[in-house]
Amino acid sequence: MTSARADRLVGRSVARREDPRLLSGRGRFVDDIELPGMLHAQFVRSTVAHGTITEIDLTGVRQVPGVVAAFTADDLELGDITARLGRPLSEFVPTAMPVLARDRVRYVGEPVAVVIARDPYLAEDGLEAARVTYAPLPPITCEEQALAPDAPRVHAEAAENTLVDVGLFATEGIDEIFDQAPCVVHVDVRTGRQNALPLETRGAVAQWDAREEQLVLHTCTQTPHQVRTVAARCLRLDERAVRVIVPDMGGGFGLKCVVGREEIAAAAAALRLGRPVKWIEDRKDALSASFLAREQHYTARAAFDADGRILGLDTDVVCDMGAYSCYPFTAGIEPLMASAEMPGVYKVPAYRVRGRAIATNKAPTAPYRGVSRPQYVMAMERLMERAARELRLDPVEIRRRNVITDFPYTGVNNITYDPGSYLESLDLCERALREAGWYDRQTAARAEGRHIGIGFSCFSERTGYGSAAFAQRKMEVVPGFDLAEVRMDTSGAVTVTTGTISHGQSHETTMAQIVADALGLDFTKVKLHQGDTDRITYGWGTFASRSIAIGGSAVRLAAGRLGDKLRAIAAAEWGIPPEETELDRGRVRRRDDPDTALTYEHLADTAYLKSHLLPKDIDPGLTATAVFDVHNDGTFSNATHGVVVELHEGTGQVEILAYFCVEDCGVAVNPQVVEGQCRGGIAQGISGALFEQITYDAQGEPSATSFMDYKVPTAHEIPEVVIHHLETPCAFTETGAKGAGEGGTIGAPAAVLNAVNDALRPTGVELDNTPITPETVHRALTPRTPEQTP
Amino acid sequence: MTSARADRLVGRSVARREDPRLLSGRGRFVDDIELPGMLHAQFVRSTVAHGTITEIDLTGVRQVPGVVAAFTADDLELGDITARLGRPLSEFVPTAMPVLARDRVRYVGEPVAVVIARDPYLAEDGLEAARVTYAPLPPITCEEQALAPDAPRVHAEAAENTLVDVGLFATEGIDEIFDQAPCVVHVDVRTGRQNALPLETRGAVAQWDAREEQLVLHTCTQTPHQVRTVAARCLRLDERAVRVIVPDMGGGFGLKCVVGREEIAAAAAALRLGRPVKWIEDRKDALSASFLAREQHYTARAAFDADGRILGLDTDVVCDMGAYSCYPFTAGIEPLMASAEMPGVYKVPAYRVRGRAIATNKAPTAPYRGVSRPQYVMAMERLMERAARELRLDPVEIRRRNVITDFPYTGVNNITYDPGSYLESLDLCERALREAGWYDRQTAARAEGRHIGIGFSCFSERTGYGSAAFAQRKMEVVPGFDLAEVRMDTSGAVTVTTGTISHGQSHETTMAQIVADALGLDFTKVKLHQGDTDRITYGWGTFASRSIAIGGSAVRLAAGRLGDKLRAIAAAEWGIPPEETELDRGRVRRRDDPDTALTYEHLADTAYLKSHLLPKDIDPGLTATAVFDVHNDGTFSNATHGVVVELHEGTGQVEILAYFCVEDCGVAVNPQVVEGQCRGGIAQGISGALFEQITYDAQGEPSATSFMDYKVPTAHEIPEVVIHHLETPCAFTETGAKGAGEGGTIGAPAAVLNAVNDALRPTGVELDNTPITPETVHRALTPRTPEQTP
């Protein structure tokens, strides 16, 4: 592949192709889909956290005017959604998640029956007429209850509530290292249970297409082919009899990369009734009954030498998975990722870890943006801060002494890190803060009694997980490869079809940039098609920051092959070797005579409409496909975040005064898009650090089921983020890009927490948990009177 | 590819997959498509055959309640539909067919304006309010007018009304051969102008999909990708911005293999209005303003030796193309096919031919089932009959002495015929009639004064035209190759996607048979997808009996490749060479240990979901594609038809007493389907011979615009057809199949005409033209009184 163009698009902040559509109301989301005769589904949901169902009486439901049908698990006879591990792992117990609860309920909000009515409001009326009787069982609502001896079990098929127990790494002699270390610090970090909170809640429109003998399931998912697999299994259909179509999506963040129960139930109802069925989740259900995330508990210690160099790391992590293992990312994924990757950007010579996932009577979890990384980075960065204090080192300096600088670096966790800018990003971030005057302002503010703090976080993020990396996770399915097809039509316009699926990540823009460059073609001549399981053999979808690294590489390879074919056809017409041609602005040129060129339209005309003129070894048509996979440990994006906060005494408010992000995702295909990812992720990370949390009371009732109780930031709470780019190209992706989707979310909580602790330094209080509520800050800033002392 | 199955499906009359859907009302035809906000189009059509448009006043139309818009050519500014030849051919004059008439109209029914309304009836109301003024020009309504010196020209850009004049073959010394031949016979054969008359008229639903930036055009066409090309050009869009989807179709017969004007106009209106537009042709428009066919005139002579062996053939053929050359099959196709292929099944040592297409002020023509073959076979078979009479030879015997028996045979026309059963089919057909007692019954009936006749026709049909054969036709586009994709999903079910498009030919059944055999897979696990330009790179569609020969070969190749991949994956798992495995009933077996097998589900699971277990040289996924083309002169199906008629004196009715067809289309993938094609084709051929005709009066007004005037047979007029199969497998298609779509239509008119002439033998009258009307027969059977003698 050769392109003579100097005006390459990759690396430029080309304006988003998606925006004209989305900004002018021409987007099409699931809820925009209207089909003749369409019915609407709502779900009768469990009102108890744990119990056996003694009776479901839907007689009254079926009498509500406008209600067309109501189904229980027994009515629909569906297969269960069961996430398994691909290889036997004695520490993991697979647990079945029925589409509708059968016999037993395990969390408040669990779907028990589906009501189908003429409109969604009548369906809600139907819900009120449902009579479900439960025999309550004691709910498990926290780690302590779950792990208690003789605790009631969430799943009868498991001997205990711990469903995954991994102890991946344990360096020999680690106890001696800790015993002899000059400095050992401890942290106990807990992170709150959150909802990933995409702007668009979940939803589906299911329709049986009698002509195609296919269930057409429009749904907002990050993994259309996985939904197809599960829907086909639950509905007992061949996979080809299910077509999943994903229209525009208002965010996913991992919540939509596991398969939901409601879309399967809606599909089953559509099959039963022979009419289209729409289900749109409301915010109450989204908060209480979709998939939650983040609740983890790290009990960690780290050993340092006197110079602040890490000698060892010893961690116990417990992930509260809620009631079920979700498909395909079993409960195993969170403890496995935390265990494997916690050393992060630091050189850790000795490591011990135990990772567990426990079942509780709470809504199940999905791998929310960053997965375990926001949490283990928080634990790790707290350890660094604590050691810095202990050793009276500057927080930046202690990091500087520990970050990996020689690449590729194979860690104690057996993971090989490809080159990154760990030290450079740290230095640049500190310099940026310093040059912006924040250190001086902090000093001045403190003198005035104001509580200003500066905090950092350093992290790298494994992206572009290929099948090799996923295979280590022992999942039932092993994502990794992805596919792309690049097709030029007879008019010389190009359609790119991918297995990845953009739900805010601007793939319509970035994939077109990659193809336009590869083919020397006008950007507007390239159109992306995604999100239709019938249109591409397979796709693993978009999660784990894999789309540009893996999907984009497949696109680049396929475009390259198409370019080669164009050159071969032109070369044959000229009777010269293809090497003597080049692609240039919609033409193939002769290198020896650049004024002689054949347009793509001309070559396409030959390839399709005059195929008898093609040489025998060139197939007609202009379609090229490519598969790309990563056969090593993946590629590591990295960043340093630096944040300045001020704590307000009266309110306990944490105000973010400044936010700096120095990120390196290799080649940024579209820097503006990368910045959008950073800013959005940072907003979510800040929100997790300061605002969002769903707690459960002793009965297992969730605390926050609306935006009245579930606090999310507005533009007011999110600061302007100053972003600096570094570029350490990836050596093995086709574009040099690494993943950029999750970084912001990973770095923000730790940086904010560290900044708050820095601000609190004069008080002596240290906080290790998120969210950092105003109450906590207020309490920390308020000198205790004697009677308040315990 | 190896399959151990003894129970092969190819060759068996498997029940049609299409029938449960179609018989239970679950088919989806264009008119079944309902979209929110859909509008309806009707066309203001020319009331004069030839004239200039002096004024179009749509003011009144726009005031009709329910009318939303009305557009003329000037309003829509569309590109023209222009069929060109791919290589310069001085004898052909390309003529532009505007989507809506501009300035000039050239036939009664030509679309002049489109009216868009809330429903189709209101749109019809709108038509009545249109005021179009014409300055009439003298219409050209027949060959004699068209070819007259100083005839008015239908197209100003052409110097005369002859738009194609080909004289492909002229053997040296042919005049001497005729001069010296012991027997020279002449015929003057004219065939009536017909409509192909699919049960479903034409129609389209056009919608602009703002999200995909695509015009989605549901239309009933045999050539979806060709419609895409033309629509994109006329609408000035990239081709990828047009998606053509073909739902179920109620027949096409060639009428739907050219691009219509109305679907483009409907699409343009949908673009303009931003709302879906439906157009459904009514029968009046179908008969008068769609595409007609068949009207040809052969002035031919043949020279024979005393033993009845052909010495030479000399033909002039004039094809009345009507007002326009249609895309992509220009006016050239009819005279070119007739000229090239007229010698047919006979050994013709010397040949001269002149083929012309003339423009007239009649509705344009499309290549109706059989294209020129029903006509040239009629001319050729009339020559054989006449020579038999002249030489007092039995009509079967004279054919027996002339049919090609040594294959491959390269004719005087430079076409190489692959093996067929020309002689065997003739012998078998005659024997079948004789054994059924028809010769005896004819003798007995004649003795009673009844008019029973026996007639035969022998023909071969070039099918599986590859690009090599089409390239000879010098068309702008050169059909030939076709594509197939065979994809197995993770459940082991298979989807086949083809570029051909079944519109009654049972591809859902036959393609599945081919794939099921190739993969050793249950027939019900295979589903065909067709008719969506976005779903396959390209497809030439279904015409010229190409689908099974070419499309089926591509399907077989692709399925074979998929089977090879399954074997390779299994072999890798076992660590043995792929050659030591075989496919058997949904499993790959070890040859050395047939009890050891891996199911397709297991292998699919590896190929998709555990791709890390695949060997490095095997790509993930289970999709295989193949291209197939024919690089020689094609493969020739053949048949002999034998028919027994009785003429009824009082009414002039031609009653068909018996019909025998001995056909050889190579391997019949599904004999019942082949028989369906034969029976349907024979019905159409009989209808052309006896019933259907659209004449034009001197003003160019068509005679038949409804079923009141356009006579079509019912079940009563169509006899039971006795079909015998012979099987001469094609050596170069992947299944051994030849095309079977057109044969019935080709053989019937000549056989019926010969039988009628045989019945008329006692009267001395000979008929050479079709349709053979009751008036003609009545006149022939009624002894002329002296005053009736001219």
UniProtKB/TrEMBL annotation, chains A, B:
Entry-linked InterPro entries: Ald_Oxase/Xan_DH_a/b (IPR000674), Ald_Oxase/Xan_DH_a/b_sf (IPR036856), Ald_Oxase/xanthine_DH-like (IPR016208), AldOxase/xan_DH_MoCoBD1 (IPR008274), AldOxase/xan_DH_MoCoBD2 (IPR046867), AldOxase/xan_DH_Mopterin-bd_sf (IPR037165)
Gene3D superfamilies in UniProt: Aldehyde oxidase/xanthine dehydrogenase, a/b hammerhead, Aldehyde oxidase/xanthine dehydrogenase, molybdopterin binding domain
Alphabetic keyword roster: Molybdenum, Oxidoreductase
Coiled-coil zones: none
Cleavable signal peptide: none
GO molecular function: iron ion binding; oxidoreductase activity
Cofactor names: Mo-molybdopterin cytosine dinucleotide
Residues of the Aldehyde oxidase/xanthine dehydrogenase a/b hammerhead domain: 24-138
UniProt keyword annotation of Metal-binding present: no
Cited Pfam families: Ald_Xan_dh_C (PF01315), MoCoBD_1 (PF02738), MoCoBD_2 (PF20256)
Region of interest (Disordered), residue spans: 765-790
Designated name of the protein: Caffeine dehydrogenase subunit alpha
